[in-house]
């Protein structure tokens, strides 16, 4: 090889010379020093990539883990795989907490209002740190900052496991395990003892239990969720901007959609993991049946699995360079084609100075960007309405359509894994395929269609409610508040009897056998249960006198909600597909309506304001709507209400869906305004012939 044409000539293991005798240290040289070398000009992009020296900015590895063999992983395809998996595990951990939240509430006797506050603590931390972190971390090695964020989240996961290590399974679980450890074939007597707690006994009142002081556990859970918000802020603001900076504008939507698609698989996996772990007793060595109302699942088990996966994936992310070699090669090619113009702009972005005053100027500049702010306002309204369904959908299906908790979670998970994921992926590939004809107004038009359709569908949710279930709930409420009914069970002392519904022979559902005044319970040889001597139930037996005490069986009386449930699922599937497809279009409008220098800061600002005005207030508002529609709840020893057992389903359906639809309708107005403002916004810009070279090289690399 001719020395005059060689890019570098080795002097030692850490330095090289270019044609102008400029020395570079491989451990400390910056990308700017390398690409300013004239010897790298007048080459095609393939030659430039091959001749690029492995500097600290583009080196794949850390400490002793590096080398030429590992450098082949410094490609956008590998980054998307690692980032996608990392996002998946992170999302799965958030869903796992949600899936085990009722078990944690039961184990540590934490009131629902405190559980709700703990649930939004990660959003609070995002609100506090996302803007600052996204600004100051922009100029550093973003993959390493993301890895640090995941390590922080990992610490939060281990903290969530800590209450179990400190306090164990609890005294009640230990007593329950002893009860079943000596169990032989005499299950009938055990079952009879359990059923005795639900019937009307004049000489034996149900005792209440004082709540234990678990302040330490509450604080630990709050800190754990708070730390996860910090990790999420770094992961999602820096991760997407890293993709956008390291691929062409044409390919950015495709890669972003792939990572979003993988991320959307996480909640489904998290719910499945929680379902799996909660099948085990909190002390796995004992085989306690899940049918026992005192059963507490092994909520702690999943945190071990998730922590291991987070540790592995974060450690791999730590190895990625500040910039990918292909990105540096593009800038060198831009220099020789555009006489340093593009290079100088990119250098400004890469080496922008950071200071508090500059940060204030940056955010002031972003706040004055009308297109960005109106698009963010539409996002806030949309998230406010849809966050309610994302958080409470299993509960909504369970309450409205008389489904079990497992069936409700399964329906939610299937829709999440299929329609939500496919909607986002489809949008990304369509945008990439038709990038030559797609304009900014095309994207905002789709956002308007999505908002309009979602508003109509949310109103349709009201129509497809199960009226038979509504009538049954009202009858149950009337049965327990009617004066005659109060007289028939007033000696039963049912205040502290838990919700265990029964169906009377006259077709009415009661909260429990105690509330129906049933004084006897019989367990047949086949295991079936029958309550008798129910003073609130009129007997239909022709051999008995009219008005004599009747019988009942466990469980609510059957209502047919199948057809309405199918209609609801169909509408929900359509809305889920369209809603997630709008994420890709909304993202593109946000990052293309600002200067390249403000990209990461804009994402951090967007995360902050959506958290402040949507992600934090939405769960609290809709949780309040659910709570005020409670018509029957348990009582504690202090006389305060405990968890809710019955809801006014019709009133809840109207208030819940009208509030969500109203929020999305307001967002529709902001989408229309955004449509008027994006006329001059270029989604893919004036792509040069460099894009063709990039695409050719990327295809060869694949």
Automatic annotation (TrEMBL):
Please indicate which superkingdom the organism of origin belongs to.
Eukaryota
Q: Which InterPro entries match?
A: Kazal_dom, Kazal_dom_sf, MFS_trans_sf, OATP
Q: PANTHER family given for it? A: ORGANIC ANION TRANSPORTER, SOLUTE CARRIER ORGANIC ANION TRANSPORTER FAMILY MEMBER
Q: Which protein is depicted?
A: Solute carrier organic anion transporter family member
Which GO MF terms are attached to this record?
A: sodium-independent organic anion transmembrane transporter activity
Q: Which Pfam families match?
A: Kazal_2, OATP
User: An example Gene Ontology cellular component term from the record?
Assistant: basolateral plasma membrane
């Amino acid at each position: 090889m001719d020395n005059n044409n060689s890019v570098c000539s080795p002097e030692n293991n850490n330095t090289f010379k270019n044609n102008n005798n400029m020395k570079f240290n491989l451990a400390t040289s910056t990308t700017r020093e390398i690409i300013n070398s004239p010897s790298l000009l007048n080459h095609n992009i393939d030659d430039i990539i091959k001749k690029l020296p492995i500097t600290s900015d583009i080196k794949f590895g850390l400490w002793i883990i590096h080398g030429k063999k590992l450098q082949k992983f410094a490609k956008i395809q590998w980054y998307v795989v690692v980032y996608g998996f990392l996002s998946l595990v992170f999302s799965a951990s958030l869903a796992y907490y949600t899936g085990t939240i009722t078990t944690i509430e039961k184990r540590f006797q934490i009131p629902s209002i405190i559980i709700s506050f703990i649930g939004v603590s990660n959003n609070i931390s995002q609100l506090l740190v996302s803007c600052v972190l996204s600004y100051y971390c922009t100029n550093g090695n973003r993959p390493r900052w993301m890895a640090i964020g995941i390590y922080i989240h990992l610490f939060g996961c281990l903290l969530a496991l800590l209450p179990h290590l400190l306090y164990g399974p609890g005294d009640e679980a230990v007593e329950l395990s002893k009860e079943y450890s000596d169990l032989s074939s005499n299950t009938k007597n055990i079952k009879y003892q359990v059923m005795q707690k639900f019937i009307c006994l004049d000489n034996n009142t149900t005792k209440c239990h004082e709540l234990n002081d678990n302040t330490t556990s509450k604080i630990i859970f709050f800190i754990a969720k708070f730390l996860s918000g910090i990790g999420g802020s770094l992961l999602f603001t820096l991760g997407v901007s890293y993709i956008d900076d390291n691929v062409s504008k044409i390919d950015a939507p495709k890669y972003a959609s792939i990572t979003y698609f993988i991320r959307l698989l996480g909640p489904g996996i998290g719910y499945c993991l929680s379902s799996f772990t909660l099948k085990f007793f909190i002390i796995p060595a004992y085989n306690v049946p899940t049918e026992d109302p005192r059963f507490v699942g092994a909520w702690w088990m999943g945190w071990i699995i998730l922590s291991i996966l987070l540790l592995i994936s974060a450690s791999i992310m730590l190895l990625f360079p500040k910039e990918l070699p292909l990105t540096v090669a593009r800038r060198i090619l831009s220099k020789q084609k555009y006489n340093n113009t593009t290079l100088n702009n990119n250098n400004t972005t890469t080496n922008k100075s950071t200071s508090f005053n500059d940060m204030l100027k940056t955010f002031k500049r972003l706040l004055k960007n009308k297109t960005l702010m109106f698009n963010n306002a539409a996002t806030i309204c949309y998230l406010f309405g849809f966050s309610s369904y994302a958080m409470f959908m299993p509960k909504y299906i369970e309450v409205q359509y008389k489904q079990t908790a497992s069936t409700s979670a399964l329906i939610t998970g299937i829709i999440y894994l299929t329609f939500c994921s496919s909607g986002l992926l489809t949008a990304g590939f369509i945008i990439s395929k038709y990038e030559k004809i797609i304009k900014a107004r095309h994207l905002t038009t789709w956002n308007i269609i999505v908002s309009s359709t979602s508003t109509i569908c949310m109103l349709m949710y009201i129509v497809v409610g199960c009226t038979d279930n509504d009538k049954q709930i009202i009858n149950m409420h009337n049965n327990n508040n009617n004066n005659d009914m109060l007289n028939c069970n007033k000696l039963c002392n049912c205040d502290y009897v838990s919700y265990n519904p029964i169906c009377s022979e006259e077709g009415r559902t009661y909260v429990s056998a105690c509330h129906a005044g049933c004084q006897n319970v019989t367990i047949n040889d086949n295991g079936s249960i029958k309550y008798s001597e129910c003073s609130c139930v009129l007997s239909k037996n022709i051999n008995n006198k009219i008005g004599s005490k009747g019988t009942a069986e466990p469980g609510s009386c059957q209502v047919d909600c199948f057809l309405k449930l199918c209609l609801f699922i169909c509408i929900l599937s359509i809305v889920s597909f369209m809603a997630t497809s709008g994420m890709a279009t909304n993202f593109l409008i946000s990052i293309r309506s600002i200067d390249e220098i403000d990209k990461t800061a804009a994402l951090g600002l967007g995360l902050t304001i959506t958290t402040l005005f949507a992600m934090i207030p939405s769960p609290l508002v809709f949780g309040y709507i659910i709570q005020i529609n409670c018509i029957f709840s348990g009582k504690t020893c202090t006389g305060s209400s405990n968890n809710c057992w019955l809801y006014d389903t019709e009133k809840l359906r109207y208030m819940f869906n009208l509030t969500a639809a109203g929020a999305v309708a307001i967002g529709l107005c902001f989408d229309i305004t955004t449509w008027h403002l994006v006329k001059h916004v270029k989604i893919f810009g004036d792509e040069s012939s460099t894009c063709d070279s990039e695409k050719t090289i990327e295809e060869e690399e694949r």
